[in-house]
Design brief:
156 residues; alpha/beta; Mannitol-specific EII, Chain A; six-stranded mixed beta sheet; 45% helix; globular
């Protein structure tokens, strides 16, 4: 499965406004629930927060990969968000997070879910890719950058 199979152009949020972790997760979940019919934003938020309790998904270098499994989601979807100001996300390197890939998956999708996490993680190790995402001027440009990296087999 390719990243662009589960990240749609309308799943890119170029200018997240939240100032803290919980507010940011709320903002992401509200956007997701408006894009996927039948996804309750509060249940999604609960699933994401529950996962964060196990350990931060802020992996360092200004990146976080919040994720969760939720009943009623027909298939895995990925959403991208960018915060220009950065958010304290209790990241492993203690630095603010600017780039967020939110992964939601059906309850029974362990293998595909983990494979997508690993693939996105691999892609985000590339500093030029992260810088390009930060410099992009709009959501269409962000999506194109992700799609190009995906095409080059840098993503899952």
């Amino acid at each position: 499965m390719r990243l662009t199979d589960v990240l749609m152009p309308d799943g890119v949020m170029e200018d997240l406004k939240a100032r803290d972790k919980k507010e940011l997760l709320r903002e992401l979940c509200a956007e997701v629930s408006s894009k996927i019919e039948g996804v309750d934003k509060d249940k999604l938020l609960d699933a994401i927060i529950e996962r964060e309790r196990l350990g931060t998904t802020g992996i360092g270098h200004g990146v976080a990969l919040p994720h969760g499994k939720i009943k009623g989601v027909p298939e895995m979807r990925v959403f991208f968000g960018r915060s220009r100001k950065g958010v304290d996300f209790n990241s492993m390197d203690k630095q603010p997070v600017y780039l967020f890939f939110l992964i939601i998956a059906p309850e029974n999708s362990a293998a595909a879910h983990l494979k997508m996490l690993a693939g996105i993680s691999h892609l985000l190790k590339n500093q030029d890719f992260r810088v390009s995402l930060m410099r992009a001027s709009n959501s269409a440009e962000i999506y194109d950058i992700i799609a190009e990296a995906d095409k080059k087999n840098l993503a899952p």
